[in-house]
Structure formats: structure tokens, C-alpha cells
Write a structure and sequence with these properties.
The chain is built from five helices and ten strands. The protein is an alpha/beta fold. The termini are far apart.
């Protein structure tokens, strides 16, 4: 709608460039990095873009971001940003006013979210955002045994990238034809891609 905003882009901090002679000096250097990035005087409503970890964000494995170079929300409080768009962690999540939209195309099977991006709208100094789905296949992981493999082949997996984690006994492993089973699963489920 033509409303002006200021955009502050904070690149990913590289710890290797901020290393000091000891932990205390390294932490001081990292603090200076973030303080200098946040030392701006916006004239218009502010949107921040940040590539990196935020305190409280979680990786696809559920573990919290613990890097020394993670950003604390308090470092940007004085700027009162309307929206903080984050990259680096590939699963969608909101941590206070920090928003990870997730990778637009899931890169591995740890990324099970629906591919999307956040559309941000600023009007009258206020911010709204909505998740917009992208037409890329979503990843799905299916665990099964040889006994339950037939049931997997009856599932409707159309339009999904599927990884089948098949648990086999040593005897089953000797007689197993992976290419044949993958073909059967792909043809019967309608999946875009089968990784077994």
C-alpha cells in the first residue's frame, strides 16, 4: 500500500571471526557485533532480517539453539521492530517476535513441515503476517517392518516425498530387494519420491 518501512539486515555472525584470546574476550566481541548491528535509529516502522540462531529456537531434532552467537530478543527491544524475519533454522517456529518461516523447499527428511513463506503486511504502523504455502512436496517418514510393508503400500502418499525406514531381521535383509520394494511402494502410494 506504499507505506514506508525501514529494514535492518543482520548477517549471520561467524564465531571464527569474533574469536578472542579467551572465552571472555570472544563473548565481548560477539556482544559488540550485535550491539553495533542494533545501533540504528529507524525513521519508519522497522522490520529486521536476521540469519542465525535466536535464544529459544529449536532445531528439527527438538534441541534448543545453544550457539555462542545466538541472538537474544533483549538486544533488539529498544528498536521496537514490527517483525523479525529469521533464517538459518529450517523448521517454522515463532520465538516471541522472531519468526522462522522454515526452508521453502525441505532439504532433508528432518524437515517435515509444509513448505511455505510468511507474507508480511505493514499498514498504519502495524504488522500482520500470513503463512503462504508453496507447491513443493512435503517430506514424510514412515517406519515399518517387512510384515507391515504391505499396509504402507496401501497408504495414500500422493504428492509427498517419502522416506521408508524399514526394519529387517538378518534373514530378511539377505533376501531383500530394495529396488523392487521401492518401485512397488512408489507405484502403489503415488508418492513423488521414495527413499528406502
Amino acid at each position: 500500500n506504499g507505506e514506508k518501512v525501514d529494514i535492518l539486515a543482520i548477517p549471520e555472525p561467524r564465531k571464527s571471526l569474533l574469536l578472542g584470546k579467551n572465552t571472555e574476550e570472544t563473548e565481548k566481541n560477539i556482544g559488540k557485533y550485535f550491539d553495533s548491528a542494533a545501533d540504528v535509529k529507524p525513521k519508519n516502522p522497522l522490520i529486521v532480517m536476521f540469519h542465525g540462531e535466536v535464544t529459544g529456537a529449536k532445531y528439527p531434532n527438538g534441541k534448543e539453539a545453544i550457539s555462542d552467537t545466538r541472538l537474544s530478543a533483549k538486544r533488539l527491544d529498544h528498536l521496537n521492530p514490527l517483525y523479525i524475519a529469521c533464517g538459518h533454522i529450517h523448521i517454522p517456529q515463532d520465538v516471541n517476535n522472531f519468526h522462522y518461516s522454515g526452508s521453502p523447499i525441505p532439504l532433508d527428511f528432518g524437515e517435515l513441515h509444509k513448505p511455505s513463506y510468511n507474507l508480511v503486511t505493514v499498514k498504519d504502523g502495524k504488522c500482520d503476517f500470513e503463512k503462504v504455502l508453496l507447491p513443493f512436496a512435503q517430506n514424510r517418514v514412515v517406519d515399518c517392518t517387512l510384515k507391515t510393508f504391505e499396509a504402507v503400500c496401501k497408504m495414500n502418499l500422493k504428492g509427498l516425498n517419502v522416506k521408508i525406514c524399514l526394519t529387517l531381521t538378518p534373514e530378511e535383509r539377505r533376501n531383500f530387494n530394495s529396488a523392487e520394494r521401492t518401485k512397488i511402494a512408489q507405484e502403489s502410494t503415488g508418492a513423488e519420491f521414495i527413499n528406502s
